[in-house]
Amino acid sequence: MNKYLTAFALVSSMMLAPAAWAGERTLPKVVAVASDMLLQIADPTVAHAVATSTLLRPYLRGQLGPQTFLVRHATAADLQRLLAELGLQVGSDLLLTAAS
C-alpha cells in the first residue's frame, strides 16, 4: 500500500508542477498567523502531566509535539502565574536544542 501512496504523491506533484512553473497559484489563498503563544516543557514527565491536566486544559489550544503546547493568547498571563504557583520555573525563551 505504501508504494501506491508514493506513486499517488508523485503523480499529484507532476500534475501541479507545470502550473507552478507557469506562475499559477496552486496553494490555498487563505492563511492565518496565530497570536497564540508557545509553551515548551523540558521535562517529559511534566509535559505529560500538563497534557492530561483538566485544570490546564482551558488555557491550551492544542499540543504541537510531546513537550510543546499552543497557549490561548488571552489566557497566557494567567497560565504563566498558575504554572509558577504550581512550582514550575517559567521562562520566556524557547527551549531550542542543537541538532544531533
Please render the helix and strand layout as text.
Layout: H1 2-21, E1 37-40, H2 44-52, E2 60-65, E3 68-71, H3 76-85
Antiparallel strand pairs: 1-3, 2-3
Quick rundown:
This protein has 100 residues and is of the alpha+beta class. It is built from three helices and three strands; from the N terminus they run H-E-H-E-E-H. The protein has a domain at 37-85.
Structural key phrases:
100 residues; alpha+beta; 3-stranded antiparallel sheet; 3 helices; 3 strands; elongated; disordered N terminus
Task: Kindly describe this structure.
Strand 2 (about 60-65) and strand 3 form a beta hairpin. This protein has a domain at about 35-85. The chain has about 100 residues and is α+β, with helices and mostly antiparallel strands. It starts with a helix and ends in a 15-residue tail after the last helix. It has three helices and three strands, in the order αβαββα. Helices cover about 40% and strands about 15% of the residues. The model is unreliable at about 1-10 (pLDDT under 50). Strands 1-3-2 form a three-stranded antiparallel β-sheet, with no helix packed on it.
